[in-house]
Design brief:
mainly beta, 5-stranded mixed β-barrel, 54% strand, globular
Length: 71
């Protein structure tokens, strides 16, 4: 949580996670499954995202292309 990544495979929507590739603070690459934080969000392949939550093995992300709003 708190890291940026890129949607590598698929389009993420609620209930339909996509694969996100990210690098940890040591430079190691990881692949995680992620859904949009917003209920009606859709995040396309290639989009930069911010991981904001982890629950039951799924990460939740915000679209990282513009200003990030957590409300």
């Amino acid at each position: 949580v708190g890291l940026r990544g890129t949607v590598a495979i698929g389009t993420a929507s609620r209930g339909n996670p996509a694969r996100v590739t990210l690098h940890d603070r040591y430079g190691q690459m990881h692949n995680v499954m992620a859904e949009p934080h917003e209920d009606n969000g859709v995040i396309e392949q290639g989009t930069e995202v911010l991981l904001v939550r982890h629950e039951n093995g799924i990460f939740f992300v915000l679209d990282g292309r513009g200003p990030i709003r957590l409300d």
